[in-house]
Description:
Elements: H1 3-11, H2 15-37, H3 40-56, H4 67-86, H5 112-132, H6 135-146, H7 151-158, H8 162-182
Helix pairs in contact: 1-2, 2-3, 2-4, 2-6, 3-4, 4-7, 6-8, 7-8
Amino acid sequence: MNDDELLDRARRGDADAFGTLVDRHGRAVQRAVLAVLGSSQEADDVAQEAFVTAYRKLDTFRGEAAFRTWLVRIAWREAQDRRRSLGRRLRRFVAAPEDHVFPAAEPGRRPPQEEALAGAELRDHVRRLLCALPAKLREPLLLAASGEHTYDEMAVILDAPAGTLKWRVSEARRLLKERLARLGYRDA
């Protein structure tokens, strides 16, 4: 069944049809919310709240955008509300390094421990630089980086023209690259 058929059934009270829509689009919702909040635990909570909100507002869906886009927009707004209400900023965009048992270094290469520390340092710099970007640049960059949305979908989610969002993503990348270069990361 396509989304429209499932949506019709869900509007008539078929919880299983809505469950199928959630299964189908849950990953996109989760990634968008995680991009805003940076915390997996908070993202899970907000994603669930977004699904409940969407279910309650099914009758307001007009079909002007794809159901997935409408659902992600609800989740995006809920995540922004959560971030504002908790006074939190993005703290984790890049995953923290996991503990490893390091093998011996190959000849001519840095020891794996040094590589891991350098990678962790870079992730920390990227995280701080992302947080320092203005929201109008950071948010489109995070949505684009998720790989889940086209620019047309992002335009609906962020309520901005697709062309503007393309420029904002490009500008955010340029600023990050420039700032990383100032920190000594030439190939970032």
